[in-house]
Structure formats: C-alpha cells, structure tokens
Amino acid sequence: MSKNIDQHLSQAVANGAVPGIVALAADAKGIIYRGAFGQRGPTDSAPMTENTVFRIASMTKAITSAAAMKLVEQGRLGLDQPMKEIAPELGEAVVLTGFDAAGKPQTRAPKRDITLRHLITHTSGFSYDLFNKDVGSYMEYHQLPSIATCRYGSLRAPLVFDPGERWEYGIGIDWAGRIVEIVTGMKLGEYLDQSFFQPLEMGDTSFVLRDDMKPRLVQAAARTPDGVTVLDFEFPSDGDFHMGGGGLYSTGPDYLKFTRMILGGGAVGGARVLKEETVKLMGQNAIGDIVVPPFVSDNPAMALSADLFPGQIARWGLSFVINTEALPGGRAANSLAWAGVHNTFYWIDPTSGLTAVLMMQLLPANDPQVLGTLVGYEQALYASR
Q: What is the pTM of this model?
C-alpha cells in the first residue's frame, strides 16, 4: 500500500514544499503505514527519521483536554462547573469592547461564568494575542506578557465575546492545563507523564527538551520570499506553567499512540487511560449550534487565514474539530482532527477505523504547499486501503 504514498511525500520534499516529512497511519490492528522523507531542516542534512522530535504546538491541546477529561471522569472537575471555583482569576476576566481615542481598552463584565466546556471548546471568549491584534493591543497597553512566555500574567488576557456565544481560537486550553495543575497539585507535564505518557509508552513526548531528544530535534523553519529559512522558535520550558495549548515536543510514533488510544475508545496496547464513555463524549459535538468558522489570522508570518472544510459546517468536540461531511477521497464524516502551527497534523476517523499523523516543521501554518501535501497524503492513504 505504501508505494503511492511514498511517491507523493517524497515528491513534496523534492518540490520544496518542506525540507522533510514523517508520516504514520494505523487501524485497530496496528500501524499500517510509516515513512520518513527528506532532511531535518533547511541547513540540517541529517535524514528525517521516525524518531525525529517535532514541536507539535497545538497538537498539545488534545492531550491537555484528555487530561482535564480524566479529572472529569474521576469527579474532580465538572465539565460545566464555573472555573472561577478552581481559579478565582477567571472570575475577574473582562470582555474587551474596543478602545477609546487615546487607545485605552474599554471593557465590561461577561454575562456568564467561564466553564471547563468553554475552555476546551474555544467558546470561552479567549483569543490569542498571537493572532488577534485587538488582544495584542490590550496586552501591550496593560504590559502583560504574551502566552508564548508561559508566564501567569499572559493568562490575564481579555475575552473578546461572552462565554458560550461563539467560537474563536484562543488560550482556553492553556487555562485548562493550568486548571489541571491546580486540581492535581502537579505540573501539567508531570500529570501527563503519570497518567498518559508512561502507560502509553510515549517516552519521547515532553514539555522539556531533554538531552536525549536534542540531537533528534527538527529545525524550525519558515517560508519567506527568499525561500525556506531556519527560524529561532522555542517556547520556554522554565515558565510559570506548562503551556497546555502548545508546549509539547513529540515524535510521529509517540503521537500516533495517543490518536490510536482515542480511536480505541481510551485504550491501546493493553493500556487503558480513559473510560470508553469519556472518549465517546470527547468525539461528539460539544458546542451545539455554534459553527467553527474559517480560521482567521492577523499574523500571516505565523499562520495564514484558511477555510478548514470549504462548503460544510464544522463543529468542535472535547477537543477536536469535527467535519460534518466526508472529505473527497479521504476521511469520513464526524472524524476528529487538529494541527500544530508548525504544520503538524493528525486525524482520527472512527467510521473508517483509521488514524494518521503527518509531521512537518514549517511556518506559516496553513501554507498552501503544505496543505496540498496533507490532502495528497490523506487521499493516497485511503485509496490504498
């Protein structure tokens, strides 16, 4: 089955879409495809290998949400519980309504409390200072650090709408990770290691780039008018909190163990980390009639605006995007997916019994050549079954 997939991915590297790629796929029985192509970066000629370490950025979100849901199934958190009961600062959040003539932010109190459901479905009202220029202006006015610093002050960002009223990508899952830390009394990485990484044998997944991982780290890169160049891009590992929305390093095989666990209803390889009913709930629409709109970015160097599923309605689970219609030649309706800003991708297709990861390392997110590589990989994978 691998010939056409190999050809597509190796051609993507040859055409300059990305310096290198790692791709894996599995069904209920085990791994059905694995491949590594190209090199580890624009100036790193070491060949890309399966154990190459990637910055998985927002692919961290599903893992953090799974941690929060584990606490829900244990009765230590409520999905619709006001989170100010855990973190009082969330009761002080304000809605940004605009700026006066002098540039001073204008705010009001939100109409309702922020719940865990809001935080892990991007319906809390939080946005990203990295993508929303109004939030960036608010943070600058109040001299608050960016979420990229992993400092407590970064969590004092404003809301841009009332909780539960619409969807916007933001720091909600960073807050959910902080909630996990407060409830467990552990750093998020420690809790994830104990509850997920050790039982799932995800030994190459960590918020801290260990010495054994550094030689295998892919170069961060960006596409510029002058071509693909090396980029200095790292989140701090010594911040006030572990960045539950984007701070993990991982490998293709490690992340596939996580997606296989979701595909397997909370268990894989004899290790159960979540109850089946919890995973079922995580894969259902959790935002009602709210629609996940096309992704909008005010920072094209970091991410390009893009319509994730043209011509169809997208929903959100706990915490995955859900396509409500099948993709041409690819995943079935009601599959679960997301990605990282460096163009790392995964999807979980319960209907077809298939999950896959595609790992690259190039900014901006939603780069057209990269998205073409993803679509071609998905279609070649399904055509080969």
A: 0.97
